[in-house]
Amino acid sequence: MKKLNILLVLLSFLMLSCSGKVDESEVKKAQQFFESVFQDRVLDSPEFQASLGYKSNYDQWDDITWQKSRAIAVRAKDDLVFMEKNLNYDKLDESTKVSYRLMEKQLRRTVERDGFIFHNYPITHRGGKHSSIPSFLINYHKVDEERDVQDYIGRLRNIEPLIDDLIEQLRLRQDVEKLAPAFVYPQAIKTAENVISGYPFEETKKQNVIFEDFMKKLNNLDISDAQKLRYQSEAEAVLVTLVNASYRKLIAFLKEQSSLADNNHGVWKFEDGADYYQFVLDGYTTLGLTAEEIHEIGLSEVDRIHSEIYEIMEKVNFEGTLKEFFDFMREDPQFYYPQGPEGRKMYIDQVQVVVDTLEARIDELFYGLPSIPLEVRAVEAYREASAGIAFYQRGQADGSRPGVYYANLYNMKDMPIYKLENLAYHEAIPGHHMQISIALEVEDMPSFRKYGGYSVYSEGWALYSETLPKEIGLYKDPYSDFGRLSGELWRACRLVVDTGVHHYKWTREEGIDYYMNNTANPVGDCVGMVERHIVWPGQAVSYKIGMIEIQNLRKFAEAELGSKFSIQGFHDVILKNGAVTMDILNDIVKSWVKNQ
Questions:
Q1: H/E element holding 374?
Q2: Residue 49 pLDDT > 70, yes or no?
Q3: End-to-end Cα spacing for the chain
Q4: In this structure, which long-range contacts are made by residues 524-528, counting pairs with CB atoms below 8 Å and at least 24 apart in sequence?
Q5: Percent of the chain beyond pLDDT 90?
């Protein structure tokens, strides 16, 4: 009887093993499907092709029409049907199961987004297609041979139909009463005017930003002076005719449409505003949190961080209220570099010192640095008035193009010295540069995971990474440590204000007042952030929500593993799986803990 029981147990075990056995042919089929979906995305976007280093469709721009968006949604629906009918999830290995789940989520969201096809704002005060044209040409259109020059000029010619499509998308939103708020238009118009300023649009020594880029690339090419002169003349002619006329048409349209815009700032003003806001919150948190839940988390976090700031006030012997301390940090000149070229150079130089210092000690937190190089730059003059205070641009996977941390030094009063350190950690190392570059270097990761992902992960990681240097003794200056706390406080306030504007119907002024009363950020920061909430609903909540989730996962791993816990190992498993949803990250970390 005992032998029979043992045999039954063994038989049961074998049956279970067989049912869960990995089928390599099924894995290969799934991987081929993932790659085919990614390649469809690449084929859809000449601009994405260029960012990947390809020169196919090198004279073209992306199709920005609603018809193209709808076609992508239809294809996503077909891809979902294919997955369900042709891929056996149970026969995949663990890594491919993660990819399956992520692909399924991505496709479902693409289908659902089609229900809100006109809800976004194609142009805002922060940017849009009109402002991305110069930055795309500068950063992604390489000129290595004569054909590339011809394609550059071809792209200039094709700005005309692109702007026509942009105007049409704006007109359609006017028809369905989904216009951007009135404050958006003056800066959007100013940015468009900047794109067509300078020579050859005007008789001035200052060159236009596009023309300057074209000539720099043309002059580096090994062709005759006569050929260069011919291409220069052709580019000038296209700029002063087609490009100039297109932007003038856009500017005139924006001026006309601005008279129809109102000052109702939240998406609650849409007839389906509540559904749309929940849709964007789901995308930016991946946790199904409601606006009310996010608002309460924000209020709680603001109170907690305020209490930690009181400890900084004691360290620096500040006597006064929290609000008075914020005013001191906001206004005292010791916390700002001077306005102008000298101050800008001082800021960039100090950022480089911060980055170099952490790089030298990176092994205390990670298994090493990515091979993709990092550069620190100031935001270019043509877009600095409308760009964010800091952002990161992804490098090329083969290292041929560096990752770039851009600091916006348009107004030095918006870039206090005490925040310099935590901003550098967020955007560069160990933040976005580490996160994005390491994922690009993982050989077996499907392309759609390398080049896609979720804001709650990427921004949550970057905010979490701001805390890491403190663990190895950096942030030595109490004011710099306040900068770390103020950065976290800023993101906690975002939970309150984003939901305040879009769910609780706060006015723009109420949002600005909340930031001014609860943070030390300069007034320009506070205004800019509220206006960002207004035109980009939901995105700003992803930072703090993602940080909280990663911190909770680390606490879980530390508690479960005890002395076996490795901070380098934990960070490795977080980063080498790419920008996943929070539920999937939870599963990945718990599986890693179990396998330790």
A1: strand 374-378
A2: yes
A3: 38
A4: 524/411, 524/413, 524/414, 525/389, 525/414, 528/388, 528/389, 528/414
A5: 90
**Cα angle at 295 between 289 and 298, to 5 degrees?**
105
The SS3 call for residue 522 is coil
∠ CA 100-106-107, nearest 5°, is 90
Q: Which residues pair with 407 in a beta bridge?
A: 378, 390
Whole-angstrom Cα distance, residue 506 to residue 291?
A: 13
Q: What gap in Å lies between CA 137 and CA 209, rounded to an integer?
A: 10
For the chain, give the longest Cα–Cα distance. Answer: 101
Beta strands 390-393; 374-378: pairing state: unpaired
DSSP SS3 for 375: strand
Question: Does pLDDT of 13 surpass 60?
Answer: no
Q: List all residues 6 or more positions away from 476 whose beta carbon is below 8 Å from its beta carbon.
A: none
Q: What is the domain partition of the chain in residue ranges?
A: 2-44+65-116, 129-263, 275-549
CB 442 within 8 A of CB 578: yes
Strand order in the sheet with 390-393: 374-378, 403-407, 390-393
Digit-coded pLDDT (tens) for 186-221: 999 999 999 999 999 999 999 999 999 999 999 999
**Buried-state track 170-195, b at ≥16 Cβ within 10 A, e below 16:** beebeeeebbbbebbbebbbebbebb
**Cβ-based neighbours of 537, under 8 Å, separated by 6 or more:** 266, 267, 276, 277, 280, 498, 501, 502
Residue 123's identity, in one-letter code, is I
In the block, tokens 């609603």 appear at 66
pTM, 2 dp: 0.89
Nearest residue to 589 (alpha-carbon basis) of 544, 562, 559, 550: 550
Show the beta-strand stretches assigned E in 184-310.
Answer: none
Yes or no: say if 572 and 75 are a contact pair by the CB < 8 Å rule. no
Query: Does 141 score more than 60 pLDDT?
Result: yes
